[in-house]
Design a protein that fits this description.
The structure holds two protein chains of two kinds. Chain A is an alpha/beta fold. Chain A is built from 28 helices and 16 strands. The chains are: A alpha/beta, B alpha+beta. Chain B: GO terms for molecular function: alkylglycerone-phosphate synthase activity; FAD binding.
């Protein structure tokens, strides 16, 4: 195909742009060093540490606010009064009664931060951490930035959420560095744990119900409570953007409710700025590892109870490696919103009357949420085991130790060139690194002779085929939770690799399809398809896996291993989605309800596996099943209809079939990935699309 | 206040504010003094001003930046010969002397004064100046201007701070500055209806003085009243310090006569209120010289109040002060003037205290300070002061005073004496002279204003100040800027906020440009925080870019179509507003 020189220049510019944006995004260039905070704990008295002088500096030097005073401010606010009167008019109840209700809600919600409790925790956690972990590493520069930010602006701490430990750990670190202790939004389920719930409350947690959709009063109390703390800068607010612990170690699609609440005071001019601080907490071994796998396989999560926690004492005897906590660069909401949200649109409405955020604001908050989660991902520390798990999952039958070692080294190089934040022990010989990783994760992988393979839980007594399958699935899903940690590094080039290996005329179209399909499974910022595509191209070119002569994308001679690794990386997802599609087309009955969906897909997959027609265990994960359904719903291949109390799924078999087809083609291709690729994407076409859609200046920039 | 004779030009500074004989300077002993005899501060030394100045700005009296003395180079006039011939025939005086033209080529924006001091060339100045003596003269001039396609720019007191007097550089026609200063008579006074009919060129202080001779006043006292004109007030929707008693300019005018290219616009009666469609006065009020010249105004007058009393209240914090003013507004018991100065302005005001002569006064002052800061626990770096001015008959004033002080007490306010109050108002009259002093020592300064609903007052003040500080830092200003504000007017539903902003520009290549960028950012911040584009300064050319957002496209279209009808040839071509 002939190309005009103009387009060439355009492509060239694109590449430069991509390069520049990556340079900006690339955190590798200026990541901070870590310091192990346990080291000092091992050398000095924990008691002294728990009792030492603690005098953090607050926002603009405000004096901390007593919990009771805070409640009064909230209960007397115009915002709350307005809603109380509204609810009273609607329900016919007297305002006093509603006010009393509000007060009860607040009582149930509010934190009662007490320094004495924090000191207790500081003491107990020091002991526990020293037993459980080798190191707890924190980037001190991040702490310094945070300290600065706290004094200048209201700060919102947004840690990643992989474990129950997260928020105790956060408070522990802030206490260690003499920083203001955060107040933390926690799910109500903790409150069930009688004693512990109150302890958490006294260490700064406040409790919110998991769902309160229609409850105006609850929402008003809750949002005013959070905003009051934020506006006055009484304490940094901490919550988990992902909403819940990720059972798969992939970042979850961010929830926007609380983020909306903490950003609104900026839009309303009540504060000059709000600083969002992404915090990445990486565990070398997650305490809840196999618990999560079981949960994903449909064994319900045990209700949080104190006795349950005590039983968990067993875990105290194991080695959980290290924790890395990286405090990211504070993100100024003001700078982010510059040119995106016109604050004066808030001028014509009284500020104390609750109002649904405008479209402009909603999309800003959504973008911001994704951006923060990506920042969390960027600074997640990856251990060698994560790379090994990725390789083992592509070789379920096992690998020669030497092969595993060799491939791990290869993968390490690839990961580093993609700016992964890899914590690879300096100086240690590779074999040592591999063997110590295997030792730490001996519950997941075993070495017998020269072969490394996944461990399957030793069954007691005879087992049914289903039980054996279940045990194997636990291993696979546990292992997958490590592979998942590296996915954000490889995701974009991997989708491009899959798209290339798919004999389609339009690599971009295929990429865009996958992008859309997987946008519940991975953090893909809405509207960033083109940017992600370019990033993928850039990365694959950078590592020499593909070339982009003129308008094409061509696999190079040395590119095969990379592309086929990437293809294998996404294989379980492709297969999983396909199984869901098959189920919906072939098995699903007319009146399939939403509730029945997960168990039904699971038993469908179990049947396939037992019959030897499927080897992918990850399909059994309810997370993947949910994400696949969400994708199909988004693509209008499935609709939800509410009949009486039941939500029924209406399947558009034609649409599901064609999605299955596209995925299926992918998969078949992947089996014959030796075939030379016929690259035929015309970047010009993409460029033309861009022009047609009125390429936005933000993109050009 | 001093009497300003007609034709002020001779006794006014050409490159700074006010009278030539009045200025601040640091004398040989390093003490500040204010020269001349016209003001209460004149001839006094101000011992604490230097310290305040140096501490606030990081400036030093050693770093001088005196004005360059040679007058700016003036481009030669582009005269329209036919117009000049015809004008000569009418006998209306005119001039094309460089000095006269430059004097009317600017208002008092920072960039304008800075350019004058630095001897920078104005790109475009009026080509000639005419001095009509009465309404009919104006009619003749406008007719001739239309006939010969000459651009007219009305000129009153020249106190604009919105670049409204700047000549559009792209204007190729002959620009004639129409100076109304000779139209300065009170034509008649009607004591039955309490109105006066006045020519629009009259300067505020002259109007007040002449009315006072008959026992009356208008009560309209904008801070610029020494130099600004009645016509200018109408054209910019001016606001006076005592509007709580007398109203703003739009409440004061009963009848306006203006000359437009389409002819003379006026009403047929002087009914106190009419329902005759949209009020045509409101096309003229705030038209900023884009539609025509205001020539005569009938205005409400009041008997001079029997008794006047200043007062002041200190509050521990700005928040408490604002809450108090809000309550006063709610109870509709605002005195003639009530203003709340923030802590910075309070200290600024204190820096202007003249030397105390007796040890006793010194002692009393010390005692007061001790009482407020030590016994009452006010933090000197937090406390703010409200200044008050009561007017009326004596008994009512005293009663009113008590009511206001009682409200203040509920917000933790302490009465702080008449002297503090009066000094607060003094500051507003000498502030522009102080800017000239600052400019002698590398400090640039400006003020700007807005109006905002009550519930946003605090947030707006805080955010705008913070924005200024941030922008200064980002733009390389090496010293902490001064940002100060006061709540200067109260209304039922909101308040007018007045900001002072100044910084030491040492080390900056283009201080005026930096200043303008910061001011621009500050205005954006104001708008984002629910403030208006302007409360009383107007739009001019400085804030044109925000008009569409402020009044909607349809609004702009309405104004445009009025302009289109009234002045299709753009004779009044100062290009303000739209």
């Amino acid at each position: 195909r002939e190309l005009s020189s103009e387009s060439n220049i355009y492509i060239y510019c694109l590449n430069i742009l991509v390069f520049v944006t990556l340079q900006q995004r690339d955190p590798m260039l200026k990541r901070d060093c870590f310091e192990d905070i346990l080291e000092e704990r091992r050398n000095s008295s924990d008691l002294k540490y728990a009792l030492r002088c603690y005098a953090p500096v607050l926002y603009k030097g405000v004096t901390p606010c007593k919990a009771n005073m805070l409640k009064n401010i909230v209960l007397q606010s115009d915002q709350l009064h307005y809603v109380i009167n509204q609810v009273s008019q609607e329900s016919g109840e007297a305002p006093d009664i509603i006010q009393e209700e509000a007060s009860v809600i607040l009582e149930e919600m509010a934190h009662r931060l007490q320094i004495s409790t924090v000191r207790c925790f500081a003491f107990a956690l020091s002991k526990a951490f020293k037993t459980l972990f080798q190191h707890v590493c924190v980037n001190e520069e991040g702490i310094q930035r945070l300290q600065q930010a706290i004094q200048e602006h209201p700060v919102v701490l947004l840690p990643s959420h992989r474990s129950y430990m997260d928020f105790l750990l956060m408070s522990y670190i802030l206490y260690t560095y003499d920083l203001a202790l955060p107040v933390i939004a926690a799910g109500m389920d903790f409150m069930g744990m009688k004693f512990v719930g109150e302890m958490l409350r006294m260490s700064g947690a406040f409790f919110i119900r998991r769902s309160f959709g229609g409850d105006k009063l609850y929402w008003a109390v809750f949002s005013e409570y959070v905003k009051t703390m934020l506006r006055n800068g009484f304490a940094p607010i901490e919550f988990f953007l992902e909403g819940t612990r990720s059972r798969t170690c992939k970042s979850l699609t961010p929830k926007l409710g609380l983020l909306n609440i903490v950003i609104e005071p900026f839009f309303k001019g009540e504060v000059f700025d709000v600083n969002l601080v992404p915090v990445s907490i990486s565990y070398e071994r997650i305490l809840e590892e196999s618990l999560y796998a079981r949960e994903l396989l449909g064994v319900p999560k045990p209700k949080e109870s104190t006795s349950g926690l005590l039983k968990a004492r067993r875990i105290l005897s194991e080695d959980y490696g290290s924790i890395h906590v990286y405090f990211g660069q504070p993100v100024s909401v003001r700078s982010l919103a510059q040119g995106k949200v016109n604050r004066s649109t808030y001028n014509l409405f009284p500020r104390h009357i609750p109002r649904k955020p405008m479209e402009e604001t909603q999309s800003f908050v959504n973008d911001t949420a994704y951006r923060i989660v990506r920042l969390q991902e960027d600074n997640m520390v990856l251990k060698p085991w994560v790379l090994m798990a990725s390789l083992l999952l592509q070789n379920l039958e096992g690998l020669e130790l030497s092969v595993l070692t060799e491939q791990t080294v290869w993968l390490r190089g690839l990961a580093l060139s993609y700016a992964a934040f890899l914590d690879w022990p300096d100086q240690a010989p590779t074999a040592k690194v591999v063997s110590s990783s295997l030792a730490l994760h001996r519950g997941l992988a075993c070495v017998s002779g020269d072969r490394v393979s996944l461990v399957v839980g030793e069954p007691l007594g005879p087992v049914t085929p289903e039980e054996a399958l279940f045990n194997r699935a636990v291993s696979v899903l546990s292992c997958a939770s490590y592979r998942n940690q590296v996915l954000h590094v490889f995701l974009r080039p991997a989708m491009l690799a899959v798209a290339m290996l798919h004999l389609s005329d339009e690599v971009y179209n295929c990429f865009s399809f996958l992008w859309d399909m997987f946008s519940n499974d991975f953090i893909l910022c809405p509207g960033d398809t083109v940017q992600d595509f370019e990033e993928a191209c850039y990365l694959l070119v950078k590592t020499g896996a593909v070339q982009m002569p003129q308008q094409d994308i061509v696999m190079t001679d040395i590119g095969q291993p990379t592309l086929s690794f990437f293809n294998g990386l996404l294989e379980p997802f492709l297969q999983g989605y396909q199984v869901v599609c098959r189920y919906l087309c072939e098995e699903a009955s007319e009146g399939l309800t939403e509730k029945q969906y997960i168990p039904a897909v699971r038993s469908f997959a179990v049947k396939l596996i037992l019959a030897g027609n499927l080897r992918c265990y990850e399909v059994l994960s309810s997370d993947m099943q949910k994400n696949a359904l969400a994708a199909l719903l988004r693509m209008d291949a499935v609709r939800k209809v509410k009949v009486a109390d039941q939500v029924t799924l209406i399947v558009n078999k034609m649409a599901v079939n064609s999605i299955d087809d596209i995925l299926g083609k992918n998969r078949m291709i992947s089996h014959i990935n030796q075939t030379p690729i016929s690259p035929s994407l015309s970047l010009v076409a993409v460029a033309e699309d861009l022009y047609r859609d009125g390429l936005t200046p933000s993109y050009i920039r | 206040l001093a009497y300003c004779a007609t034709g002020c030009q001779e006794i006014m500074k050409w490159n700074g504010w006010g009278y030539s004989d009045s200025k601040f300077l640091f004398n040989k002993k390093g003490q500040a003094e204010f020269t001349g005899k016209r003001y209460r501060l004149s001839g006094m030394t101000l011992p604490s001003l230097q310290d305040w100045f140096e501490n606030t700005f990081g400036a030093s009296v050693k770093h001088k930046s005196p004005p360059v003395l040679n007058a700016s180079v003036v481009p030669p006039p582009r005269l329209n010969e036919a117009f000049v011939e015809n004008l000569k025939a009418t006998g209306i005086p005119f001039s094309n002397e460089a000095e006269d033209r430059v004097f009317r080529a600017h208002g008092h924006c920072l960039h304008e004064i800075f350019a004058l001091r630095e001897g920078k060339k104005f790109e475009r100045v009026p080509d000639m100046v005419v001095w009509p003596n009465c309404h009919n003269d104006v009619v003749k001039i406008v007719e001739l201007a239309c006939k010969h396609n000459v651009c007219l720019i009305p000129y009153g007191g020249g106190t604009s701070v919105t670049s409204a007097l700047e000549c559009p550089p792209e204007e190729t026609r002959c620009i004639v500055s129409l100076d109304t200063s000779q139209m300065n008579r009170i034509l008649w006074l009607d004591e039955n209806n309490l109105v006066a009919h006045v020519e629009a060129g009259i300067i505020g202080q002259d109007l007040e003085r002449l009315l006072n001779e008959s026992g009356y006043c208008t009560g309209h006292e904008p801070d610029s009243m020494e130099f600004s004109s009645l016509g200018g007030w109408v054209a910019t929707r001016a606001s006076g310090m005592k509007k709580n008693v007398y109203g703003n300019i739009e409440d004061l005018v009963i009848h306006i006569k203006a000359v437009t290219p389409r002819g003379v616009i006026e009403k047929s009666c002087q009914g106190p209120r009419t329902s005759t469609g949209p009020d045509i006065h409101h096309f003229i009020l705030g038209s900023e010289g884009t539609l025509g010249v205001v020539t005569e105004v009938t205005m409400k007058i009041r008997p001079i109040p029997e008794y006047q009393k200043y007062g002041s209240v200190v509050f521990p914090k700005f928040e408490a002060g604002v809450a108090c003013l809000r309550e006063v507004a709610k109870q509709r018991c605002a005195p003639a003037s009530i203003r709340l100065m923030d802590n910075k302005q309070f200290h600024f005001g204190h820096a202007l205290k003249p030397q105390v002569s007796s040890i006793f006064t010194h002692f009393v002052e010390g005692l007061k300070k001790f009482y407020i800061t030590k016994l009452k626990g006010f933090d000197p770096h937090q406390l703010v002061v409200a200044t008050l001015l009561f007017e009326g008959d004596r008994e009512r004033v005293l009663q009113h005073e008590k009511q206001v002080y009682d409200i203040a007490a509920t917000f933790g306010g302490l009465a702080a004496g008449e002297d503090n109050g009066q000094r607060g108002y003094l500051l507003t009259f000498v502030i522009a002279y102080l800017r000239d002093l600052g400019m002698d020592y590398c400090v640039v300064a400006e003020s700007f204003e807005t109006s905002v609903p009550w519930d946003r007052v605090l947030d707006l003040c805080q955010n705008v100040k913070e924005r200024i500080i941030r922008e200064c830092k980002e733009r390389g200003v090496q010293f902490q800027p001064l940002t100060s504000c006061r709540v200067t007017q109260t209304y039922d539903s909101g308040a007018c906020i007045y900001f002072y902003f100044a910084f030491n520009y040492r080390g900056l290549a283009d201080p005026v440009h930096t200043y303008e960028q910061v001011e621009h950012a500050a205005r954006e911040e104001i708008l984002a925080n629910g403030g208006s584009l302007s409360h009383h300064h107007g739009v001019g050319k400085l804030r044109k870019e925000w008009m569409k957002d402020s009044i909607s496209n349809v609004g702009v279209g309405m104004l445009k179509s009025v302009k289109e009808y009234v002045d299709p040839e753009n004779i009044f071509g100062n290009r303000n507003l739209l």
